[in-house]
Write a structure and sequence with these properties.
The complex is a heterodimer. Chain A is elongated. By secondary structure, chain A is an alpha/beta fold. Chain A has a five-stranded mixed sheet with strand order 1-2-5-4-3. A two-stranded parallel sheet of chain A has the order 6-7. Chain A has helices spanning 5-16, 39-48, 111-122, and strands at 21-24, 30-35, 56-64, 73-81, 86-94, 100-102, 125-127. Chain A contains three helices and seven strands. By secondary structure, chain B is mainly alpha-helical. Chain B has a single domain (62-410), classed as Cytochrome-c3 Hydrogenase, chain B, CATH 1.10.645. Chain B is built from 17 helices and six strands. In chain B, the strands form two sheets. Chain B has a three-stranded antiparallel sheet. A three-stranded antiparallel sheet of chain B has the order 4-5-6. In chain B, helix 4 (107-135) runs antiparallel to helix 11 and helix 6 packs antiparallel against helix 11. The longest helix of chain B has 29 residues, at 107-135. In chain B, 48% of the residues are buried. Classes of the chains: A alpha/beta, B mainly alpha. The interface between A and B is large, with 35 and 41 residues.
Chain lengths: 172, 411
């Protein structure tokens, strides 16, 4: 039977019950959420189930929502079923005080560097990652640049005149 | 960047003559690494025991920059990712925005976009294949095909003004119609290039030295390649026929007839052959698209963008004379247009694989979050596995046949 978003949603709800939530289909892609301690269980189920077969990790990234206390950092996984050509998006939220997520490297080797990049920019700690260190930024950096509180520009530059750049002196 | 402070416990291979491994630092500035990325190799004699990659030398914070720029200004960031085929990045970004904004482009625009994207694919594969030749010692091929890359750049220049980092197109179409000169140059390319590619093939494909250098090195099985997230020619060389143009057709690719070449073992020779055949297929797609474009007559032949005044800047002469155009211009530039709230993921078949854009919009002028799914970054992780046990010179060829573009790796 052709694989559809509704079928995937039904199977997930049968297996995980209320843990999986927030089902929606923006622009045709099924998106849902699960608690962060269950991320591997959900991905393993999607990988192993013969009628689901999500065996390709397209992308892994994070998003910072400073206005959602307790669930500020979201790790978003995009999975792809190549044989039936269906993609899904799956996200887990963690709080910024303790951003621990289990690593997906044992399931998908592609997750190795993608998780390092996510750690580098957002500070998400992937438990069990073989080599969790910064990848694109300098090792000495002690902050996480993609978080919303970090400004795009260096605040201590004295040579740029904001008036001339049409910003009127403030960064926004 | 601090050099490695500790050596992991490296297991020496059987039959090793030395009692320890040599650490060799390959890069970041090295004539054989095409771009800035570093490899710290542990060598046992001439065999590689392990390789650790360092990337990030050309990281330019594109994802952070994109959070501060309106959608039409992000195109210039996308140019600079895979700079060998920047039109594909630009078009991919425009299509992502069009998906978010639910803009439908007319067929003529789609066909013109396909011409530009396939020209970019030819340009990128030509660079990759000729560089593989250079790295195995044959410089002639690279220099000979350079003239035809120049012709491709001249075609871009006719349309958008720039040669390499093109910023070509707008959300909804192109900034101007293709001129007659652009079509003339395209016809010249279609006439002359097949002979050049044939000669390039004659130089390399059945050349015994080249074949012996490339066959059997840098191979990967299809299962491992899929697990590593490979896409593009590297995955197709390993035997999996995943091509986003066929799998999830975008931009009217379904109207075209082309085959997707697939290899066997994923070794360097297969990658060379897959890229070469893709260039022939791209040439065929361009010819089909050009014929289809020529079929548009009369007013249809002047269509070069979708009719979306909310997102497409009006002609300057209209802005100065008509009220509505002035209002649209003001709204677009000042960021008062209605961008829907939502999240969209769109991917295109870039020259290196599936180039994806994950855009989260909060209704404001700039994206809330934009993430680029960069194929080079994802498949470079496998380099350690690809080169374990091979000789140093094979590792260089493996690196160049993977087509690593530093701009795309680091973004």
């Amino acid at each position: 039977m052709p694989l559809s978003n509704e079928f995937i949603q039904t199977r997930l709800q049968e297996k995980f019950g209320d843990s999986v939530s927030a089902f929606e289909q923006p622009y045709g892609m099924l998106s849902f959420e699960a608690p962060h301690e269950m991320n591997l269980k959900v991905m393993q189920y999607l990988y192993d189930a013969e009628d689901l077969k999500f065996r390709f990790l397209t992308d892994l990234c994070a998003v910072h929502y400073p206005d959602q206390p307790g669930r500020e950092l979201a790790v978003v996984y995009h999975l792809h079923n190549l044989t039936d050509n269906i993609r899904i998006r799956f996200r887990v939220h963690v709080s910024i005080e303790k951003p621990d997520v289990f690593t997906a490297t044992n399931l998908f080797s592609a997750a190795n560097w993608m998780e390092r990049e996510t750690y580098d920019f957002f500070g998400v700690n992937f438990i069990g990652h073989p080599n969790l260190k910064r990848i694109l930024n300098v090792d000495e950096m002690d902050y996480f640049p993609m978080r919303k509180e970090f400004p795009l520009e260096d605040q201590v530059r004295l040579d740029k005149d904001d008036e001339m750049f049409g910003r009127g002196g403030s960064i926004n | 960047m601090i050099m490695q402070e500790h050596q992991h416990h490296i297991k020496l291979p059987e039959g090793s003559i030395e009692k320890q491994t040599t650490t060799l630092n390959l890069g970041p500035t090295h004539p054989a690494t095409h771009g800035v990325f570093q490899n710290i190799l542990e060598l046992d004699g001439e065999r590689i025991v392990s390789a650790e990659q360092t990337v990030g030398y050309i990281h330019r914070a594109f994802e952070k920059l994109a959070e501060r720029r309106p959608l039409y200004q992000i195109t210039t960031l996308t140019d600079r990712m895979n700079y060998c085929s920047s039109p594909i990045n630009n078009m991919g970004w425009h299509m992502t925005c069009e998906k978010l904004l639910q803009v439908k482009t007319p067929k003529r625009v789609d066909y013109l976009r396909i011409i530009i994207m396939e020209l970019a694919r030819i340009s990128d594969h030509l660079i990759c294949n000729s560089i593989v030749g250079v790295d195995s010692g044959a410089y002639t091929g690279f220099l000979y095909v350079m003239q035809y890359r120049e012709l491709i750049y001249e075609i871009y220049e006719e349309i958008c003004g720039s040669r390499l980092t093109t910023n070509i197109g707008r959300i909804g179409g192109f900034e101007r119609n293709f001129t007659a000169v652009a079509f003339e140059k395209l016809e010249k390319f279609l006439r002359e290039y097949p002979k050049v590619l044939k000669e390039f093939n004659n130089l390399f494909m059945r050349n015994r030295i080249f074949m012996e250098r490339l066959q059997g090195t840098g191979g990967i099985s299809a299962e491992r390649a899929l697990n590593y997230g490979f896409t593009g020619p590297n995955l197709r060389a390993a035997g999996v026929d995943y091509d986003v143009r066929v799998h999830t057709p975008y931009c009217s690719y379904e109207d075209f007839d082309f085959i997707v070449p697939v290899g066997n073992t994923g070794d360097n020779y297969d990658k060379f052959l897959v890229r070469d055949e893709e260039m022939w297929q791209s040439l065929s797609i361009i010819e089909q698209a050009y014929r289809k474009v020529q079929e548009f007559k009369g007013a249809d032949a002047d269509v070069y963008h979708a009719d979306v005044p909310e997102y497409y800047l009006p002609d300057k002469k209209d802005v100065y004379t008509k009220m509505e155009a002035l209002i649209w211009h003001f709204k677009i530039v000042m960021g008062e247009t209605a961008i829907p709230v939502g999240q969209v993921y769109h991917s295109v078949e870039g020259a290196n694989g599936e180039l994806g854009f994950y855009l989260i919009s909060d209704g404001g002028r700039t994206p809330y979050r934009l993430h680029f799914r960069r194929p080079c970054f994802i498949y470079y992780q496998a380099y350690d596995e690809l080169t374990k046990g091979s000789m140093l010179s094979d590792a260089i060829i493996t690196m160049s046949s993977l087509n690593l573009i530093a701009g795309e790796m680091d973004a």
